[in-house]
Amino acid sequence: MYVKKTAVIICVSAAMICGAIRLSMRLTEARELEMEVSKPQQEITAQEQTNIYNEGSNIPLYYDEEDVLLLPIRNVAQGLGGTVTWDKTTKNVALMYKGKKLLLEAGNSSAQMCGYHIKLHTPPQSINGCLYGEASIISDFFSTEVRWDSAKKQISLKSKEGLIPIIESDFLVGKSQGKEYNLEIPVIMGLNDGSYEKGLNKEIVQEIQGLADEFMLDEGDGNFHLQLEKGLVNGEFISLYWRGEKGEQSIYKTINIDLREQKTKLLTDMLTEKGIENLKEQVPFTENQLFYITEEKDLALIETENEEPTVVVLPGNGDILKGQWQTKYADFIFG
To answer: What are residue 316's phi and psi, to 5 degrees?
Structure first.
């Protein structure tokens, strides 16, 4: 049994930014951070919108219009067992947790995590002297899971069990003579083998750079962009996919990595012969079939035979595929 202890509690009076919902935090001894949504109180002026908090009462903010949750970095970091330091020279805030380091700067979407350069979707914000960061980057760094309970109007960050790789993003961007590209690149961190981790990241960058170079050599003008999405990510397997457009052409790309063998995998490596035959009866299938495993552990097949690629999602343990995964993959995907 865990006894609840108060870490950060009440804001007596506040004038909130338009669209922001007040939240309060509680910390359990299990390193689980809970945040309860309170009734929004908004005070809007024509020229200026301000936040006023009692001293020491920095609380999370949720912007419902943008669906963005900002967390007070120092409060959350210390509550989850990390440390926070401020460098006056570089104006960076450094978070340390279990040997990992995250460098953030207010208003700057560029950051460093575990020695890698990454890009943040929402830059950290300095509000009333407190640095706030988007929940996703904080939860990734501290290996926590964000949960929303609509009935209780409560958000919690709960520590994940086991070693979970961190997947952040960087971007390759360029333009020249009527052409422009913006390609999202995964930055993979937290693997057991540091040499493999660096080599894997370098290999992915080189591959995406090759796509950019090929695009720039094509005739004509146009834009090329790729957006990265995470599928299944655990201590044994990473499944990622990209979707985007190159000119008027839809583009899909996937990568599936067996971390135990340190190899990328084809779908034919993961299914039994019977499983492959079952798939061929349902959808067009090629030896180098594009696929990814979703966070919900479904199999997503990308059909590129048609002019417009389509994605077919099949339950990973449904009628077609149940019992048809190679044993080593069935264990960690569905075990």
So the answer is: -60, -25
The CA distances from residue 297 to 23, 109, 169, 282, 304, in Å, are 32, 31, 22, 19, 22
Look at residue 153 in the predicted model and tell me its pLDDT.
58
- Residue 162 phi/psi, 5-degree rounding, is 80, 175
C-alpha distances in angstroms, 253 versus 184, 241, 323? 12, 6, 27
CA distance 286 to 302: 11
Q: Bridge-partner residues for 145, per DSSP?
A: 158
| Cα gap 210→250, rounded to integer Å | 18
Tell which wins on pLDDT, 273 or 25.
273
Bridge partners, residue 293, by sequence: 299
Of 16-25, 137-146, 244-253, 303-312, the poorest mean pLDDT is in: 16-25
pTM for this prediction = 0.81
319 vs 99: CA distance, rounded Å? 44
Checking DSSP bridges between strand 116-119 and strand 125-127, what pairing results, if any? unpaired
What is the per-residue pLDDT for 212? 96
Give whole-number Cα distances, 49 to 42, 60, 148, 234, in Å. 10, 17, 28, 42
In the predicted model, what is the mean pLDDT of the chain?
81
Task: Report how far residue 266's alpha carbon sits from residue 257's, in angstroms, rounded to the nearest whole number.
Answer: 9
The DSSP code for 305 is S
CA distances from 326 to 279, 332, 334 (A): 15, 11, 11
The confidence band for 335, taking pLDDT boundaries of 50, 70 and 90, is low
Residue 220's identity, in one-letter code, is G
